[in-house]
Amino acid sequence: MANTVQPKRRKRVDGELSRERILDAASEIAAERGYEGTSIALVSAKCDLPASSIYWHFKNKDDLIAAVIERSFASWLRAWEVPGDGTARERVQGLAMQIAKALLDSPDFIRLGLMLALERRPIEARARAMFIQARTQTAVALTETLSELTPGLTETQMRQLVTYAIAGADGLFIANEVDDQAVDLIEMFNMHANALYSTAVRLLSENAGQ
Amino acid sequence: MANTVQPKRRKRVDGELSRERILDAASEIAAERGYEGTSIALVSAKCDLPASSIYWHFKNKDDLIAAVIERSFASWLRAWEVPGDGTARERVQGLAMQIAKALLDSPDFIRLGLMLALERRPIEARARAMFIQARTQTAVALTETLSELTPGLTETQMRQLVTYAIAGADGLFIANEVDDQAVDLIEMFNMHANALYSTAVRLLSENAGQ
Amino acid sequence: MANTVQPKRRKRVDGELSRERILDAASEIAAERGYEGTSIALVSAKCDLPASSIYWHFKNKDDLIAAVIERSFASWLRAWEVPGDGTARERVQGLAMQIAKALLDSPDFIRLGLMLALERRPIEARARAMFIQARTQTAVALTETLSELTPGLTETQMRQLVTYAIAGADGLFIANEVDDQAVDLIEMFNMHANALYSTAVRLLSENAGQ
Amino acid sequence: MANTVQPKRRKRVDGELSRERILDAASEIAAERGYEGTSIALVSAKCDLPASSIYWHFKNKDDLIAAVIERSFASWLRAWEVPGDGTARERVQGLAMQIAKALLDSPDFIRLGLMLALERRPIEARARAMFIQARTQTAVALTETLSELTPGLTETQMRQLVTYAIAGADGLFIANEVDDQAVDLIEMFNMHANALYSTAVRLLSENAGQ
DNA sequence: TATGAATGAGACTTCATTCAT
DNA sequence: AATGAATGAAGTCTCATTCAT
Q1: pLDDT for residue D2
Q2: Which nucleotides of strand E are protein-proximal, with an atom < 7 A from a CB?
Q3: Which of A163, A185, A203, A205 is best to mutate for the B interface (most B CBs within 10 A)?
Q4: Which of C142, C178, C203 to mutate against chain D (most D CBs within 10 Å)?
Q5: Residue C163 to residue D177, Cβ atoms within 8 A
Q6: Where does the HTH tetR-type domain lie (chains A, B, C, D) (predicted)?
Q7: Would the CB atoms of C114 and D174 count as touching at under 8 Å?
Q8: Do B91 and B81 contact (CB within 8 A), yes or no?
Q9: CA–CA distance, C68 with C115 (Å, rounded to integer)
């Protein structure tokens, strides 16, 4: 009669599980409605735990949203990696493709993050700080990759190129959000990759000219 | 006809003035905190008029925010116009410069608009619709201008180019918002203009190649 | 058909009336249960106005309790006045009688005030400050009166005498609260008056002896 | 018998220690914020034990506060004892000194107790009852002592004198709480002792006069 | 052309307490 | 001898909005 079911330690394990359920619910709502639009009552209803239980797992709403950002940033970082072969232009295009797909796969991170970035309420939310930190990390990773693909740029030029690369991605993401029928995101990211490559080439030629 | 006192128009004028004060306050707050973060009480405190007076001038909160968008869009449209001379590349650069400066001068329109665009709350707000309409108008104007500057593109290519142009502008605006010290917006818009021009040239050469 | 009923401007007048109703309810509850025990819901139920209406009249709970203190202090001050004739001892006794009766008539001020005075929560409540200020005013008034009745005391002695006078009153009030059947407050205040007078005489004789 | 390890008593000892830590934390908080202001969460944070552990040691919040009163009353009683020699006036003064010092040494008992005594919430708390019982015990002890020091008073006079003695002590304690810089508690208790003695003498002479 | 007063709903958060482990 | 997790009730306060004047 070997009892294979082991309901022991359920509560202990359920703690982590509950936390995850709360984060799932909060992610979904926050991506839809932003910081202020995400009410604890809404999250509570969606994850089917009383509001007071949410406060067992998170200090307050800010803490909760920050945890949402943290978790979704991790999964976003996992989603893209540098392609290893082909010409420089092809590899830049390949990278852009990765990012485009990551954006389409898990848009919550960017959507919520951009909303937080745009908000400027007097008391800086921890959640906002967390997004900006995540974005800085992205910029560092991108700098490394582009440095390898298009060597010879000055530090300033590199920084500008990375800023422009990220800006284009953000902007295209928004364009897709505003009217997802009119925009072929993959196609547009391809155009962005080409533009980036052309820009790099132009900058290099300027360096040579001087 | 020397009667300088005009008590008849007095009330009307005061009314307009109050309306303007409300819009000023609402603009500032909405640009800082988004739709949900803009409470009537906050607006009331900032413009020093009772909340009930706001409801005399505007049907409800949605109507107020929509009016904010409407007014700031008008001033934004007024701020840029196509430069008339020079080479095509120079004129694209000139246009980019206009837009960059308009963004720096009255950033509220874009900031609030982007926030609204990113939000996806179930019931579409009139304010969001108004921003998207304003943006469509911008796209139309941009299409006209770019058609003139880089003729020969197919309609699809043109639409893509305009989408990319706007996306870049949005993205650079956000980059500037996130860290306004690290980004020289004018410089970056110049880079964007060059990238746009290069893209147009590439597309044209592809057309010729086919 | 001269209509003598004038329901006009009712709402405007009701504002003051509502404020008074709220203060009445809050006074009663706060005197019974102290600062923390006075919940807005309780006050709301007792004055039959929704909680949100209380916030129209008072900024927050602290503001409300402070207003309670303020109002009850005013009525308390009105309740006692210095008796004008008789020997010094008789006049001190007469004054004590006034205060004893004032305490019995409107005990809320003292009860709530003492509770606030005893509390030492980190963030000082405005209500507590208000009580302490009221009490200082009482001390000043008492100093004037006693100076006239028992002249010749040094400033330090006077201050001590006043402190002792108030302390005795506070203590007797508490004794009456703890067990109002065992204590005849009037009788006890008479004893207090005699003790005060004896103390003054003793101090004066010490002064003379030096 | 050289076994120095005693794991059997270990749990018991730890338990007592936890209980003590909880009581320490609760005492401090309750003396600062009163009954309602003392939340289990606050106590839990201060003693660094989970809230559920507090409920292992105490039935509920009321039980906890009652235990606080009980413990602090014991230490308070331990702190004063009747001086054995000198004139009656000197011995009364000596006793007053003891009490003044006990008040300064462990003020928590009185502060919390007075707060409870002043509160009149509908459902009598066990904690309040415990304080009143403690206070009755003090009155009995004081009656014994004063009977010995000033014999010849009627029972009623004695009860009044004891009531007045305690009232003065309470009042002076409060004066010291409200503004501890302006009040020299030792000096004031000396004044109180003299006043008590004078009162006793006056009462005795009245008895003789009748 | 306003506005003082009010209000029900809902915001975030803490409360005292329980229970399975 | 504890404790992680949960929970319904209640806490203070703000919300958008209405209405009589």
Answers
A1: 47
A2: 1-21
A3: A163
A4: C178
A5: no
A6: 16-76
A7: yes
A8: no
A9: 14
User: Predicted confidence band at A210 (pLDDT cuts at 50, 70, 90)?
Assistant: low
How buried is B91 (Cβ within 10 angstroms: 0-12 exposed, 13-18 middle, 19+ buried)?
A: buried
Write out the residue limits of the CATH 1.10.10.60 domain(s) in chain B: 7-66
What is the distance in angstroms measured between the alpha-carbon CA of D28 and the sugar C1' of E16? 19
The DSSP letter of residue C122 is S
pLDDT band at A175 (very low <50, low <70, confident <90, very high): very high
Cβ <8 Å between A115 and B111: no
Residue D10 has pLDDT above 70, yes or no: no
Q: Say if D171 is an interface residue toward chain C (CB within 8 Å).
A: yes
Distance of CA C104 to the CA centre of its chain: 11
Rounded distance in angstroms from the CA atom of residue D142 to the C1' atom of nucleotide F9: 46
**Statement: C11-69 belongs to CATH 3.40.50.360:** no
Write out pLDDT tens, residues A178-195: 887 889 999 999 999 999
B7-66 — its CATH code?
Answer: 1.10.10.60
B11 CA to F18 C1' in angstroms comes to 24
Residues of chain A with CATH 1.10.10.60: 10-60
Residues D152-158, mean pLDDT to the nearest whole number? 94
Of all nucleotides, the one whose C1′ comes closest to residue A52's CA is: F7
Residues carrying CATH 1.10.10.60, chain D: 8-67
Nucleotide minimizing C1' to CA distance for residue D50: F3
Structure tokens at B14: 């005061």
- CB-based contact B22:B58 (threshold 8 Å): yes
Task: List every span in chain B annotated with CATH 1.10.357.10.
Answer: 73-209
Question: How do residues B173-195 score in pLDDT, each as one tens digit?
Answer: 999 988 888 899 999 999 999 99
pLDDT value of residue D28: 93
Low-confidence ranges of chain B (pLDDT < 50): 1-10
CATH topology of domain D73-209: Tetracycline Repressor; domain 2 (1.10.357)
Nearest residue to A134 via CA among A75, A50, A195, A64: A75
State how far the Cα of B76 lies from the Cα of B114, in Å rounded to an integer. 14
D8-67 belongs to which homologous superfamily?
Answer: Homeodomain-like (1.10.10.60)
Residue B58, phi-psi category: left (phi > 0), alpha (psi -120 to 50), beta (remainder): beta
Query: Chain D residues with CB inside 8 Å of C172's CB?
Result: 163-164, 167, 171
Q: Right CATH number for A10-60 from 1.10.3720.10, 3.90.580.10, 1.10.599.10, 1.10.10.60? A: 1.10.10.60
Top residue of D131, D170, D184 to mutate, by most chain C CBs within 10 Å, is D170
Query: Is D198 in Cβ contact with C195 (below 8 Å)?
Result: yes
Distance (Å, rounded) from C-alpha D40 to C-alpha D31? Answer: 14
In tens, the pLDDT along C117-162 reads 998 877 767 888 888 888 998 899 889 888 988 889 999 999 999 9
Radius of gyration of chain C (CA): 21
At A24 the pLDDT is 96
Chain F nucleotides reached by a protein CB under 7 Å:
1-21
Instruction: List chain D residues with CB under 8 Å of C114.
Output: 114, 118, 174
C119 CA vs E16 C1’ separation (Å): 22
Contacts of A106 (CB under 8 A, 6+ apart): A72, A75, A76, A79
